[in-house]
Amino acid sequence: MVKQIPVPQAKYELLTDVRQSRWKTVLCLVLVSLILGILFVTRAWLGIIILRSSSTETFDTETIDNAKVATWLRRARMYAESTKENQNANRNNSISSPQHFYTNSSGQIIVCYYTISSDLNTLWELSPSNIDPNLCTHIIVGFAGVVNCSLNLGNNSSIYKEVIGLKKFQPELRVMISVGGSNELHLGFSEMVKNHANRKRFIKSVLNVTRTFGFDGLDLDWEFPAWLGADEREKIRFIQLLEELRKEFYRAKETLILSVAVAAPQAIVDQSYMVTEMAKYIDFVNLMSYDYHFYVWYYPITGLNAPLFSRAAESGYLSTLNVNFSVHYWLSKGMPGEKLIIGIPTYGHTYRLDNSLNHGLLAPANGFGKLGNMGFVSYPTVCEFLRNGAESVFEFESKVPYAYKDKEWISYDDITSIYYKAEWIRANNFGGAMILSLNVDDWNNTCKFNESFPLTRTIMKILRYQEN
C-alpha cells in the first residue's frame, strides 16, 4: 500500500498546473485513445481475414508444409469460428452421459482415413506398404478433388492402387475414396452441385473411377455446405447430390458404399445439413468429433481437442463442445445411431503458454506450441514430449489427457482415452469408430509399445474382438 502524505501546498500547485494545461491533457488522451483504437481495429481486422480465409479461395496452402495440415487447420479454424456463430444454439442445452447402455452389435465398423500428401518423405507420411490391412474394416483414402465438376485424383493414382492392393491380404477390407478436404479450398463442390447437369457429370466420373480402380465406395468431405455466407441452397443441393448418387449406384448395379464426413459443432450442423434427408441415402456418416478447442487469438486459452464428456465447470455453449453432446445432437436431428461413426483423432493440439507456472485447462496462451506444425502434433511426437520430461494429466471428467513442459502445452488422446471412447461406442451400439488418421498414429513403433498403430489397435481390440 502506498501511504498518502498530506502536502497541501503541493496539491494546490499540482491542481493549478492541471487547470492551466487542460487542453494538453485532453489532446494526449485523444491521441492515446486513437492509437489504441487503431491497434484494436487492426488486430480485429487481421483476425477476421485469417478466419475468413479458411472458407475462401484466398487460403494459401503453399505457406503450409503439408497438405494434411492445411486441411485440418482450415477445419479447426471453422470449428472455432462456429463458436462465434452460435446465436441460434440453446446456451442451456446440455446432454448428459446416457444412463442406459444397449446390447453391443457385432456389426460395428472401424473406418480409418489414410491421407495422401504431395511428398511421401516425412515421419507423417505413412506409405501404403506399412499399413496393417487387418486394423480397419474400411480405409478411406483422401483427398481427391472436384475439378470441372468431375472427380480428380491428381497425380496420386499409384498410391490409390497400392492401398487397394491391401485387399489381397485382407479380402474383407473395404477401400473408399474421399473427395474434398484441402481440395475443397477451390470451391469445387459449390459449383458441382449447382444444377443437375453438373451433378450428373460428377456422378459419371465417380462411377468411372470406382470401376477403373476397384474402389468399394465414395466418401464426401465437403466442409461445409451453406456455411458462413455461402448460398443457402447448397444445403438442398447437397441432398439432391446424395439422392442422385444413390440412384445411379443402384441403376449401375454398383454395390458402392456412400458416406459423408460431417461437422460436430451444433451451429454448423444446423446451418449445413438436412439430417433426416441425408440419412435416407447414405450408408453412414463420419462424425468429425475433434478440434473442439484450438488456439485462436480471440479465445487464447488452453482447451481439450476431443473431450468425450463435458466438465461440470462448463456451461452453456461450452458444454456442447464434446463428443457425447455432438453424437446425441446428431441423434436428436434424425441420424440413426447405427449410421453414426464416431471420429477419434490420433493427433493432438499444441499451445504456447503465457506463463509456464499456469499450465492447467483454461490457462492463458499466446500461440501454437513449438512442436508439430501449425498447432497439430502427431502421436509419436507426443510420446517423445513425454519421454523428455513433460508432465501428463488425465482429465477424468472429460476422459482425455493433456501434457505440459515449460511453455509447451498439448491436448491429445492416448491409449487410455481411446479405450474409454471405444468402450462408450460399443456400449451405446453406435455404428463404429472413425480414425483420423493412420498417418499420425505411431505406425513406426516410436512410442515403444511393442506394436505399431497402438491407438488404432486399441479400438480394433474393443470393437472387433470385444476385449476388455
TrEMBL record:
Entry superkingdom: Eukaryota
Keywords: Glycoprotein, Glycosidase, Hydrolase, Membrane, Signal, Transmembrane, Transmembrane helix
Source organism per UniProt: Apis mellifera
High-level lineage: Eukaryota, Metazoa, Ecdysozoa, Arthropoda, Hexapoda
The protein's name in its UniProt record: Acidic mammalian chitinase
SUPFAM superfamilies xref list: (Trans)glycosidases, Chitinase insertion domain
Gene of this entry: 412245
GO biological process, one term: carbohydrate metabolic process
Stretches assigned to the GH18 domain: 108-466
SMART domains, A to Z: Glyco_18
